[in-house]
Every structure is written in C-alpha cells, then in structure tokens.
Amino acid sequence: MLSVSVALKSLADSLSDDFPASPGTRIFEVSFPLNDGFDPLCWLNAQPVWPQFWWQQRSGCQEIAALGTAVSFLSIADAERFLSRHAADDIRICGLNSFDFRQTTFFLPRLEWRREGGVATLRVNLSSETSLKDDAHAARAFLATLTPHGVCNALALELISEIHRPGEAGWRGLIEQATRAIADGEFDKVVLARATDLTFATPPDAGALMAASRRVNLHCYHFFMAFDAQQAFFGSSPERLWRRRGLELETEALAGTVASHPDPVQAQHFADWLMHDDKNQRENRLVVDDICERLQEYVDALDILPAETVSLRKVQHLRRVIQAKLKEADDERCLKQLQPTAAVAGLPRNKAFDFIDAFEPFTREWYAGSAGYLSRQQSEFCVMLRSAKVSGNTLRLYAGAGIVAGSQAESEWQEIENKAAGLRSLLFSE
C-alpha cells in the first residue's frame, strides 16, 4: 500500500532528529490519503507486534487503528491524569474494561491511525519518564518492523468440539432460579449469559473474523483487541455505553429484543410487537430509570428521547437515548456510573451482579465490558456485546438475555441463540 509506506517513511524521518536525554512527550503526525483501498484492520492483522487495537464507531464516521504501546495505564483514572498534563495535545488513549473491572487495559499507542469522516492521519507517540532520546530510538526500531501489507484471509475451520456453558438444561435451571429470586424480591432483573466454546483443528484468525463481522453486522460498533499472537477479543455491538463531547453526554437504554427477518414486512411486524410488548417495555424502562438515577447527581440537565426500534441482522432491540449535560468532564465517573448498565447486569446492580458472580458457570472477563477511547476533548465507549474471545485453537462466543418476572427459559434460550448467530454464522454456513 503506497499510502502507508509513504506515511511510515515520513514518520521515521521525523524521528531522525536529535532528542534530549530527558523526560517528555512528543507527537509526530502526517496526513494519510484515503485513495488506495487501505484497510486499517487488515493492516493491523498483518503486523508482528502487539497490542493491536481497532475500533469503529457504529455510524462509521470515526475509526482508530492502534499498534504497540508508548505508555500503559492500569485504569481510566491513570489515563486521565496523564492527559491532564498534556491538555494542549489531542492525545487519545485506547482500551478495554472488563465486565467486573478485574481486568483493565489502556494504552497510549506507539502508532495510531485515525480517521474522522473522510480525513485520516497517522501519528507516532513518544513518551518517556527518563529519556526521549532513548524512546525515539525505540520508536524507530518499532517502525522498522512493520510491513505495508494487510492480511484478512479467513481460513477454513474444522470444528473439533462445541460446549455450551450452561447447556440447555442448565440454562433452564438457571432461569428458574433467577425468576424465583425475582418473585422473592431479591432483585427486579438479572441479565444471564451463555458462553459457547468452539474448538477447531487450527487457530481461528481473529482479525479475519472481525473483518467478516464488519461486512455483515451493520449499524454496530466494531472492536478488536489482539493482546498477542494467540489471544484476542473482538465483536460487533449495537450498544453505546457513552459518548462525551466536552460536557455533552449521550448514553442509551438498549434492552428488549425480538428476532429480525429478511422480509421487511415481517421484520416490521416483529418491530411493532416489540414496541407494544409489556415485558420488553418494562425491561427497557428499568434500564432507563436506573441510568437516570445514577447520572442525576452529576448532570445539570437530562432528557429522555422517545423509544425506537433498532434493526440488526439477526435481532431487533428497543432503544431509548438519554442526553445529559455534565457538571464536569470526568470519564472515570462516567464509567463507574454507567458500567455495567442494567441492560447487561440487572437491578439493583449490586444484587444482580452478586447473582451472576455466584451462579453463571463461566467468568465473563471482557464480555459485557466496554471498549473505546478517551481524550481531553471527547470520549466514546461501546458495550462489548455480540463478542468472541480467541485463545489458541478455541473461540468462545457470548450471548445474554435480560430476565424479569414472567421470563420463560425457552424463549430466553432462543433469544441468546439469535444473538450468538451474528458471529456464529461467520464460522459456518447458515
């Protein structure tokens, strides 16, 4: 690819200057013409260095491809402290939060490709607490390892085994246990999930699967994180956790589900049913009320937009958008107040979380956590749903369903089957 070759050479030339043997942060950026079919995801997938992070906003207007680490952070709070020392620079820090916050990974990329609409740039970040001269040397060596080529070739996969956790019988027992707890007043809602482990004869190519999901799962956030050559987490999620532009915040309640259909008339029939179904409307309102309650102390204004249906490839959802004006720009607070939402955990949050922790037969890890970026000017994170984890030869698919009074195990099982199909159908013929 000519564009990436030229941009990488230009950045490498920028690093040929003398740098002081003292602490500091420097950014070098070049414009990146979008005229030769460059695919940032497939380019990342071809590189021999990690971490690799790719994220695309669901409207398609923003895209980030990040490679390597200049600075790593243990939390959003650590990242915000770093950003506060560089207020004049448009620095973005990328990363993931796990569902239970037991895992968090944030980093200032060594190399970042960024697209806003039809304008793209490539930048290299230097940052050192000891010597910028040494960090520039490390950055030059890093750039020298990169290839201009991209790879996103899906391999034919031979399935060896498939295990649901829980299986259908276990799921039925879990739903019965949850609905009894709801009837006893322990909580109002709990979101329960299933993990499906698919083991293949050869390792799945996570980048190629992400590219395949991007092609067919439209109107979704796409997120991809390769930690090393064997470990990756990726998916295509319809749900925004939050978007902040200055003090303007937008979040949403995405809860309530029905199947989609290739026939537009039938799909509209399902959507009309969803808009008037008591169980699904009740589930959505619980999420709305919880979000508003959590935000109330930290905003000057708050507005709930009318309910709408969101149509995806396999399912349709109820969504209510919530807009607010923050008293101060604090992404750590946004994260703590909004994750996990009632749409992925339940209500009350702590009691639902305890039930999940005690009775789900697997650990969620990154599933239902969040992926995105933050900067001084803006931040945006999606909820990591419709996702999969690659670990060697095994790919784990995740899907969940909101359980409230009146939930039936059979219909909830079908719901998670529909949700998992968004990625599963990429592995097997439908």
UniProtKB/TrEMBL annotation:
Database matches in InterPro entries: ADC_synthase, Chorismate_C, IsoChor_synthase, MenF, MenF-like
Residues annotated as domain Chorismate-utilising enzyme C-terminal: 169-419
GO molecular function: isochorismate synthase activity
Cofactor: Mg(2+)
UniProt keyword annotation of tRNA processing present: no
Binding locations of Mg(2+): 283, 415
Catalytic residues as annotated in Swiss-Prot or TrEMBL: 189, 239
Presence of the UniProt keyword Repeat in the record: no
Top-level division of the source organism's lineage: Bacteria
Enzyme class name: isomerase
UniProt keyword annotations, A-Z: Isomerase, Magnesium, Menaquinone biosynthesis, Metal-binding
Reaction(s) the record says it catalyses: chorismate = isochorismate
Functional pathway: Quinol/quinone metabolism; menaquinone biosynthesis; Quinol/quinone metabolism; 1,4-dihydroxy-2-naphthoate biosynthesis; 1,4-dihydroxy-2-naphthoate from chorismate: step 1/7
Pfam families (UniProt xref): Chorismate_bind
EC number: 5.4.4.2
Family: Belongs to the isochorismate synthase family.
Physiological role: Catalyzes the conversion of chorismate to isochorismate.
NCBIfam families for the chain: isochor_syn, PRK15012.1
Protein name (database record): Isochorismate synthase MenF
Source organism per UniProt: Pseudocitrobacter cyperus
Name of the gene this protein is made from: menF
